[in-house]
Amino acid sequence: MQRVYSVCSPKPTNDQLALQETVFHNANGYLGVRGTLEEGAPQGMDTMRGAYVNGFYEIVPMKQAEKLTHVREDKESMINVADVQGIRFRLAGEWFSQWTGTLVESERRLDMDRGITERRVRWRSPEGRETALCFRRMASFAEPSLFLIDCEVTPLNYEGEVEVESTHLALVKNYANPNDPRLAGESECHLVPDGSLIEEGASYLSTRTRVSGLSLTTGVKHALEPAAQNAQTVYDPAAHAAAFHASVTVGQGQTLRLQKYCVFSDERRHGDTLAAARRAMAGAFGRADELYRAQQETLSAFWESADTTILGDNDTNLSMQFNLYQLFQSAGRDGLCSIAAKGLSGEGYEGHYFWDTEMYMMPFFTLTMPQLARKLLGYRYRTLDAARENARLLGHRKGALYPWRTIAGRECSGYFLAGTAQYHIVGDIAYAVGMYYNATGDREYLISEGAELLLETARLWMDVGHVAEGTFRINCVTGPDEYTCLVNNNYYTNACAKNNLELAVRAAHLLEEWGAYGEWAARLGVTHEELDAFAHAAEIMYLPYDETLGINPQDDSFLQKPIWDLAATPRENFPLLLHYHPLQLYRYQVCKQADTVLAHVLFESLADAGVRERSFRYYEKITTHDSSLSNCIFCIDACRLGLRREARAYFGDSVKTDLLNTHGNSKDGIHTANMGGCYMAVVNGFAGLQLCADGVRVAPFLPEGWTGLKFSFQFRGSRLRFEMEGGEYRVRLISGGPVSVFTQDDAFCLKHPGDEARGKTR
Question: CB neighbours of 637 closer than 8 A, spacing ≥ 6?
Fold first, then answer.
């Protein structure tokens, strides 16, 4: 099976071009480069020409209408760092452009097996000369600092001079849209020159951010075959830019190959950025073919671990492969960064990390690449002190409150009602810790980092909540549904807090069993009385329930509000947040996304099947799914409730979010959380996979239109393979063992590779 996504659009519209820039971006977890055309787009087209380094940020003003105590007036924002994409070819006196002459053939390809993008065109110039051009791009996994553009130019019906003009621009602006709260409001260059070096044909341009003071160096060097005698690299100090110029006479049918090696080096990882860039260039230059092979080997190993194949529906299967590939491209790998809401594909949400990573993306990495999952958790541990400080700013005497959106650990949400007030992020991170430990049994992680994180997040709940009428209650918070803010006893938040408190107690008991409790407790001031208080608060946690409707209300006051008439709302007024004042939304029963339904998916045991189905039906009628995080969750819940038609419909709306631009903003970057949610919908929904204390459970069914489903996953050091076709399924032990597998009707202990658990689908 080839994992290749391609489009043929010779002269795309503005919207098509912007979407393609996102879909065909290249990233490796450290750097990302949007798929803009090397030669540029015509004047007037709205193109987002960007390159980004994960975790590299500037501190920018965040305007507040009123000055309120401890409400942030600045924020960390991922910035566009350099433009290394510019390459122009003058072919026998005519400049190549997709918008001049005739495109006889045109195709853009994302090859997910090779880890590259390609643009192939056959161009007939206004004067009738035909040329085949291929632009190949790669963000290297083997050399994370490297972005490579590999160009081939072949005259087909003529011979003549090919002139090359390649640019390296260090001072660039971020993209902005003042009318969209998901983007920066103002376009600005956040970089100032910080040194330059032209050395052996390479240009090294250093910049520094104006406020955060972080430095970055980009290096560019070209390889040209056949070689040009007149090749030169020139630095322009006024623009802090460099340009490479060369010309070669190329015969008919002869191919000119230009390789543009671009390296990125930032201060947070490398200290001396110029020295690091020079080392990276020395290690990469001239090794393109070797690095292509290494890229393919990396992707081969990735797909062996992560492949999730849907049989019988090729379009859906390709969309699924696309989503998983993008997750792999987006994930930070060094513990200094995480996964932004838009990955490294665009400037939407300013490169901020949200709860998305832990709740929607971590399950994928935990089950397929647990070593990478630990790196992502490591980022949260490294920002734990910042979370402690954030809690104190908000008046909490103890505990850690992670910011709603951040890069380096500071709160970057200006609208605290729908941002900072989402305290559930604390429980979300704790949930991810618990899931990781349950899936891996990684004792060392729990001792060194995980238990402390669980403790400090549990302490926050004890400071936030209080006991009233014999139950533990949490007031004035915002749940996942951002159309309902500052409420008492949000069901999802309280369920997360309950789980968080239980996990902290469980972790402490494990440390006692392992003989690691004493030092840990002494260092953090833990007492058994405090742990008993955690356990008691969890036991008496208040979870709203309405006797009349037989559902879990989203919060204490939710059912007291009138219901928003979604059927009467004009289609063009969605998403609601762009057309209605927040207060108007807050006064109605209307949900942006899954909230109580998400709690039922994560904490299924807290409500019986009847309550969950009645709740599902209730919230289904009032949820807009304006957030891309929503459909996938409704899909999982529908699967567990046996609602086949609904499950298939919700998944279909979710899996193609970016390829079809269903939310209308994929030009700003991919929807990484939705991509992780699609994986959860397949594995936890249709396959019915759930991890438990004593093994794994499966309860699968095939949706209409699928003939089968296959995927691999890991559990406590063992690798397993799930396969379902027709009305039967099996779970096979590939390596490691033993693993207990529970089906609807039986229990199996897989002890040796090749052992299987079998069953019939629901």
Answer: 594, 597, 600, 601, 612, 616
Q: Go through 289-311 and write b for each residue having 16 or more CB atoms within 10 A of its CB, e for each that does not.
A: eebbebbeebbeebbebbbbebe
- Residues near 515 by beta carbon (within 8 Å), at least 6 away in sequence: none
For the stretch 429-463, pLDDT in tens is: 999 999 999 999 999 999 999 999 999 999 999 99
Asked if residue 673 lies in contact with residue 356, where contact means CB atoms within 8 angstroms, the answer is yes
At 600, is the pLDDT very low, low, confident or very high (cuts 50, 70, 90)?
A: very high
For residue range 268-288, list pLDDT tens digits in order.
Answer: 999 999 999 999 999 999 999
The single residue listed with the structure tokens 């002269």 is 11
Q: Which residues are catalytic?
A: 482
What gap in Å lies between CA 592 and CA 609, rounded to an integer?
24
For residue 188, CA distances in Å to 46, 172, 180, 191 come to 16, 8, 16, 9
DSSP letters spanning 524-564: HT--HHHHHHHHHHHHTB----BTTTTB--SSSSGGGSPBP
List of residues 6+ apart from 379 with CB closer than 8 A: 332, 335, 336, 337, 338, 353
How far is residue 607's CA from residue 655's CA, in Å, rounded to a whole number?
Answer: 28
Residue 717, judged by CB atoms within 10 A of its CB (0-12, 13-18, 19+), counts as middle
Please, is 63 exposed, middle or buried when counting C-beta atoms within 10 Å of its C-beta (0-12, 13-18, 19+)?
A: exposed
pLDDT tens for each residue of 21-38: 999 999 999 999 999 999
**What integer pLDDT is reported at residue 177 of this predicted model?**
63
Amino acid at 262: C
Structure tokens at 528: 């058994």
Q: Are 129 and 226 in contact (CB under 8 A)?
A: no
**pLDDT, tens only, 605-621:** 999 999 999 999 999 99
Which residues share a beta bridge with 473? 466
Task: Say what the pTM is.
Answer: 0.96
Residue from 143, 263, 138 nearest 202 by CA: 263
Residue that has been written with the tokens 């089906």 in this structure: 743
End-to-end CA distance of the chain: 28
d(CA 682, CA 755): 23
Tokens of 389: 């400080």
Q: Which domains does the chain have, with CATH numbers?
A: 4-30+40-56+73-187+223-263 (2.70.98.40), 687-762 (2.60.420.10)
Degrees to nearest 5, angle at CA 179 with 421 and 352: 45
Which amino acid is present at 623?
A: T
- CA 402 – CA 410 distance, rounded (Å): 9
Q: Is the pLDDT of residue 65 over 90?
A: no
Closest CA to 432 of 676, 647, 616: 676
Instruction: Give the C-alpha separation, 608 to 282, whole Å.
Output: 62
State mean pLDDT over 33-54: 93
Strand partners, 136: 118, 150
Tokens found for residue 280 = 């990276």
Distance CA 271, CA 759 (A): 56
Spatial distance between the Cα atoms of 729 and 253, rounded to a whole number of angstroms: 54
pLDDT tens for each residue of 142-151: 999 999 999 9
And the tokens for 173? Answer: 């602006």
**Radius of gyration over alpha carbons of the chain, in Å?**
27
CB 120 within 8 A of CB 151: no
